[in-house]
Amino acid sequence: VQLVESGGGSVQAGGSLTLSCESLYSRQCMAWFRQAPGKGREGVAVIDHDGPTVADSVKDRFTVSRDNAKNSFYLQMNQLTPEDTAMYFCAARKFAWTSCTVEDLGINEDNWYRGQGTQVTVS
Q1: Minimal CA–CA distance to 89: which of 56, 120, 55, 54?
Q2: pLDDT per position as a tens digit, 41-78
Q3: Which of 27, 59, 65, 25 is nearest to 44 (CA)?
Q4: How far is CA 109 from each of CA 33, 89, 103, 113, 123, rounded to the nearest angstrom?
Q5: Which residue has the higher pLDDT, 108 or 87?
């Protein structure tokens, strides 16, 4: 499964970024997770046929959307803080019988394909 992220970069605190993910194939459950240096993997958002779910830690600032016609998936990040600094990864669920949740995304790495990541740095 090919997943290609883009849109990362450096931004000042309070700024915004939009991350994009292009998938080679159509996938029902798509997601974003992040990993900061020295920290574990954190599920940020998922989207499936029921709609989007964003982690409580960012739900007032991040939104997720998709364009099925383009097999693309987006993460709009507003009011960024230095604590948002991390590598952000696009992910796609491997198996239809597993959960499409931010919790599963953060815990069960084997259930997800992922891209190479895009760095977000907030200063």
Answers
A1: 120
A2: 999 999 998 899 999 999 999 999 999 899 999 999 99
A3: 59
A4: 11, 12, 11, 8, 29
A5: 87
Q: How many residues does the chain have?
A: 123
Distance CA 41, CA 38 (A): 10
Most distant CA atoms of the chain, gap in Å: 40
What percent of the residues of the chain are helix, what percent strand, and what percent coil, each to the nearest 5?
A: 10, 50, 40
| Residue 109 to residue 50: CA distance in whole angstroms | 22
Contact 9, 121 (CB under 8 A): yes
The residue with tokens 């849109």 is: 7
Q: Residue 35 has which token pair?
A: 């990993």
